[in-house]
Amino acid sequence: MARELQLKTSPTRTPCIGICSTTSVGDAICRGCKRYAFEVIRWNSYADVEKEAVLRRIEALTEQILKNRFHIHSAAALESTLQERKIPMNPALSPYCWLHSLLQKAPLGALEMEASGFSILKAHQDTSLAALANMADHELLVLCEAHFARYFHQVDSLA
Q1: Residue 159 belongs to a domain
Q2: Do 30 and 21 contact (CB within 8 A), yes or no?
């Protein structure tokens, strides 16, 4: 409820974390924020309701992937770690979105997971944090591509 209130009382923030591959590389899906290229390009012209729909999609897909690998035991510690490292995060989104940003931007070899408010789930403890972060990001990109193919590609082909 607090997150919903925050969305309604403040302008919708961009999910950009400063790793834009749609404008720099020409990717169809941004490797950083996972928006589609047309969403990155049109973001400033979207109404808040359209921006919120994009954010909710990214949030749902990110949570689906990261909850299977990580446990967040302190959102406050995670937020503090992001602030200390000056990594962009949207407080209106799930802490799993914050964790995804941290895993993409932070040097993972020096990251203290417990102090940063998260841990690796037992099923994945034999995998390094860097490998787990790469696998999760790859799986998220594949899920975003599948979502695009199902909901947007068909619409474009009808035009």
Answers
A1: no
A2: yes
Residue 150 lies in a domain: no
Only one residue has tokens 């990580």, namely 70
Residues paired with residue 71 on neighbouring β-strands, in sequence order:
119
Q: How far apart are CA 128 and CA 117, in angstroms?
A: 17
Query: Tokens for 97?
Result: 């979105």
> In the chain, how many domains are there?
1
Mean pLDDT of 104-133: 95
pTM for the model: 0.84
Strands 118-120 and 70-72: antiparallel
Q: Which domain holds residue 43?
A: 2-143
Q: In this structure, is residue 151 part of a structural domain? A: no
CA distance 29 to 61: 14
Query: CA dihedral in degrees (127, 132, 138, 143; nearest 10)?
Result: 100
Residue 125: other Cβ atoms inside 10 A: 9
Residue 90 placed within a domain? yes
